[in-house]
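for ur thesis appendix - Uma2 family endonuclease. copy paste whatever u need, i formatted it the way the template wanted (i think)
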Amino acid sequence: MSRAEQLSPGPRKATYADLEAADPLLVAEIIDGELVTHPRPVPKHAAAASYLGAEILDAFGRGRSGPGGWIILDEPELHLGPDVIVPDIAGWRKERLSALPDRAYFDIAPDWVCEVISPSTERYDRNAKRRIYAEAGVKHMWLLDPRAELLETFALANGRWIVGPTFDNAAEVRAEPFDAIAFPLTILWPLDPAPDTQNAQ
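the 3d part is after this line
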């Protein structure tokens, strides 16, 4: 290897300024030094995230249909070491997050995250982001796939993800850390997609 090759810098790592300059119509994250952008979710993805968030918020955020004790938020910006991550939904136990920060992001790792899988995010959700959440000490992770209509659950033990139950439309969801309540997965798909008349012809 020549001296010039030894001294040549590696790829430039993305900065927060790069993230701020991203198209505001895109979701932007910094993952392993790379600026990653993807489009806003399609309606079935957005509906699934909203309905799941509402179910958990009612029971664990507001405490109306469950025990309360949590802060539940949609798409919070998380600063986890050098990474800037935006999960679809995240939750903190109130004893760990007693007040909301006065800045635009959180640097306290959540106790639970849920990523809603889409074609543009699945590679990151299942690989780099899952590793980053484990390194940050997030205790529980759910992966919700509206296309397959499946919910996968994971729990962190000794720095590694342990696969928990997977739920489909035939099974009632009761999963840690929200196993004080149960709900049918079908409530997350409130409407069938409209028929594609162009492809039907």
